[in-house]
Write a structure and sequence with these properties.
The protein has helices spanning 39-52, 76-85, and strands at 4-8, 10-12, 20-24, 36-38, 58-65. The protein has 94 residues and is of the alpha/beta class. The chain has a single domain, classed as NAD(P)-binding Rossmann-like Domain (Rossmann fold), CATH 3.40.50. Strands 1-5-3 form a three-stranded mixed sheet, covered by helices on one side. A two-stranded parallel sheet has the order 2-4. The longest helix has 14 residues, at 39-52.
Length: 94
């Protein structure tokens, strides 16, 4: 059975797609000062996982961060596609 496990940071009720999605593994995002994400961004990542999962098992942490002035905010699909191309997944043996 293939799966996608998403570990979101602190959930917020705010607008989706206004901050950059940051995906990583093994609690590396806990070192950041801001460790939250909107519920809507998590929902969009879930939908992206259904369409981009490519029958792979993957697990990751996710938060958002403010981008720099003029940066284009990646969609959930783009962020997940970039993450999947790195072939990372959480290591549960830690």
């Amino acid at each position: 059975m293939q799966y996608t496990i998403i570990h979101p940071g602190g959930l917020l009720d705010k607008e989706e797609g206004i901050e950059q999605l940051v995906l990583d593994v093994d609690d590396k995002l806990i070192e950041r000062k801001k460790r939250s994400i909107s519920r809507a961004d998590v929902a969009n990542l879930c939908i992206a996982a259904l369409t981009l999962g490519n029958k792979r098992s993957v697990s990751f942490d996710c938060i958002t961060t403010e981008g720099s002035e003029g940066d284009t905010v990646k969609s959930a699909e783009e962020a997940l596609r970039d993450f999947l191309s790195e072939n990372k997944t959480a290591n549960y043996s830690l």
